[in-house]
């Protein structure tokens, strides 16, 4: 395995107040850098003081959006260990994104090793409060300066770390979600299955309009028929109808969430039927009218589980479980966050100790 | 109008050989920068030596692709003038892109003034050979360091200049195009009408696969039914069938090209019927079988007119005009490049003197 050069900064930064950590606003003392060119491949892995990077104005990432990323978390446990949650899945997905955007693949094992090394260097930054963690952002950008539209020849992989607070400071809070009927996030044959920068640019306007109307997120429908549910903002989504849990199948425009995968495995182990299939808003509305729509929740790295209290669709208000957190949502949240922080036995061997 | 601060570099760069100018590889001595924050709005317009820019690793453009751009050209005329071609249209479209991506709008007149000032500073860089020009790349990137997915609060607008050669060094050459049936570029409700960085990232893999199969470009079909023609690579497309010229209507997923608009106006003035409407590959194939498919050409800032000699669709080869340049394609190319370089009277008042 390649050696990682480590340059420790002399003047460590002031750490932010652990009780008021806004998501993705504070960054640790160091970052990991790794360069790619056609001659040398991926080379020069190094940990350096966190600070500005220098790019040519013609760097292709700034013009043609050739950029992919991942999101992961490290947790402090009560007994002083640091745990990652299924980090191999993120490394696999990073390479899936790379292949879709024609970015050279990375050595998954080595990048995971580099992330662990970086976390060790900045381990004092991992917060310890309930619900807090160290958010890990690996990303790859095309750095070659050229205005031709094609895959770049030069790239940089970076890993930055950000201490983050509990997603819901007052415990789990159900969110109100607008079902989007004008904008699209992705379509089959597009970039929807990749964690590509451009997918998020496409979502900003719909999110803003939803927020202005009093909703915290957007539920995306399929771009073809505008009938079938795809995903919520930056989360996957699950519906509990009459005891069965249903989540949209990975149809070529949905991101394959690591939390989504974990939820399916947990529920199956618990003997609850999970269906991965197309599910239409008509079916959800009908279940609501029949009083069989029991719970709705989003899943993702940031919030883990995000209970949905209301869906607003086509001028119709769908209130779920009287706007309260469902029993299963709470149980899934407690189990996954328990495993992540070492409070619940990790029988599925999901965690990796740093 | 705001004052533009100008810092001239002391050591001017060596200019590249005008006979071997690759597209978007060489950049002039200076660039224009303009910053935005919520308090000051757009501020501090300045022309500085061309060189690397400094970004926070958490700059939102690198993670969520909030970036838009334009492409324009400046031409040297025989009598020593410098002409721009319909630059107001590019400024209008830049603001359309801004609105779609929630980037603060710019003062179109001021940015055009800034571009003209920059061109004047670097006017020695405008090449004079046949078919050459100075390519102008205005672009805006989200610079705020934050990992939350939302519209950024800080941006930078940059303009960089690149001397470019004739797109076809040996005169107009018909291209072979693969009709794409797996990948999608954009869909209604997405970013297809904006000149957004992410749209180009989505196109790279299809372009590579087409090139490997011997085709120089990809023809995108609508993502919904995979039946109707949308656009070619980074160009709009026109079909001449039985004397009538047909181009896909601006349906919400196609970019509104400035050259496209100019072609429609020219053809209409020449008394040729132009239809902006949905056109399916079935219709094109039928016209080919009926021997009424007379010409096909792409239009865009880079190539102006790009005659299509072959379309490969669903294992069927559609040869157009025996693979030769059509009469109308040539006439359009000569007229537009003539107007751009001051050789043909600009009766439509399309050019702007710098």
From TrEMBL, chains A, B:
Reactions accelerated catalytically: L-valine + 2-oxoglutarate = 3-methyl-2-oxobutanoate + L-glutamate; L-isoleucine + 2-oxoglutarate = (S)-3-methyl-2-oxopentanoate + L-glutamate; L-leucine + 2-oxoglutarate = 4-methyl-2-oxopentanoate + L-glutamate
GO molecular function: L-isoleucine-2-oxoglutarate transaminase activity; L-leucine-2-oxoglutarate transaminase activity; L-valine-2-oxoglutarate transaminase activity
List of residues that carry N6-(pyridoxal phosphate)lysine: 195
Record key words, sorted: Amino-acid biosynthesis, Aminotransferase, Branched-chain amino acid biosynthesis, Pyridoxal phosphate, Transferase
Annotated EC: 2.6.1.42
GO biological-process terms attached to the record: isoleucine biosynthetic process; L-leucine biosynthetic process; L-valine biosynthetic process
Tagged with keyword Transferase: yes
Pathway(s) annotated for this protein in UniProt: Amino-acid biosynthesis; L-isoleucine biosynthesis; L-isoleucine from 2-oxobutanoate: step 4/4; Amino-acid biosynthesis; L-leucine biosynthesis; L-leucine from 3-methyl-2-oxobutanoate: step 4/4; Amino-acid biosynthesis; L-valine biosynthesis; L-valine from pyruvate: step 4/4
Extent of the signal sequence: none
Pfam families, per database record: Aminotran_4
Family to which this protein belongs: Belongs to the class-IV pyridoxal-phosphate-dependent aminotransferase family.
Protein name: Branched-chain-amino-acid aminotransferase
Organism annotation: Paenibacillus crassostreae
């Amino acid at each position: 395995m390649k050696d990682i050069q480590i340059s420790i900064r002399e003047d460590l930064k002031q750490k932010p107040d652990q009780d008021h950590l806004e998501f993705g606003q504070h960054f640790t003392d160091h970052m990991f850098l790794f360069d790619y060119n056609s001659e040398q491949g991926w080379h020069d892995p190094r940990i350096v003081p966190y600070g500005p990077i220098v790019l040519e104005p013609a760097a292709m990432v700034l013009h043609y959006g050739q950029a992919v990323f991942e999101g992961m978390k490290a947790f402090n446990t009560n007994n002083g260990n640091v745990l990652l949650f299924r980090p191999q899945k993120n490394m696999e997905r990073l390479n899936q994104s790379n292949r879709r955007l024609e970015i050279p693949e990375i050595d998954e094992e080595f990048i995971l090793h580099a992330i662990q090394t970086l976390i060790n260097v900045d381990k004092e930054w991992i917060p310890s409060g309930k619900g807090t963690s160290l958010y890990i952002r690996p990303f790859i950008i095309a750095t070659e300066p050229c205005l031709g539209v094609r895959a770049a020849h030069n790239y940089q992989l970076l890993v930055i770390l950000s201490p983050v607070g509990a997603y819901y400071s007052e415990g789990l809070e159900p969110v109100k979600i607008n079902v989007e009927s004008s904008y699209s996030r992705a379509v089959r044959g597009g970039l929807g299955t990749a964690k590509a920068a451009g997918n998020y640019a496409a979502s900003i306007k719909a999110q803003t309009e939803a927020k202005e109307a009093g909703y915290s997120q957007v539920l995306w429908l399929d771009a073809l028929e505008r009938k079938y549910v795809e995903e919520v903002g930056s989360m996957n989504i699950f519906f509990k109808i009459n005891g069965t849990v249903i989540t949209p199948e990975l149809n070529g425009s949905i991101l394959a969430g690591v939390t989504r995968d974990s939820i399916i495995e947990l529920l199956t182990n618990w003997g609850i039927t999970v269906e991965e299939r197309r599910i239409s808003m008509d079916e959800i509305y009908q279940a609501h009218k029949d009083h069989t729509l029991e719970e709705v929740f989003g899943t993702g790295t940031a919030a883990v589980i995000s209970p949905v209290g209301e869906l607003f669709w086509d001028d119709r208000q769908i209130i779920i479980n009287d706007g309260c957190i469902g029993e299963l949502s709470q149980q899934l949240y407690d189990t996954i966050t328990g495993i992540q922080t070492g409070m619940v036995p990790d029988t599925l061997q999901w965690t990796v100790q740093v």
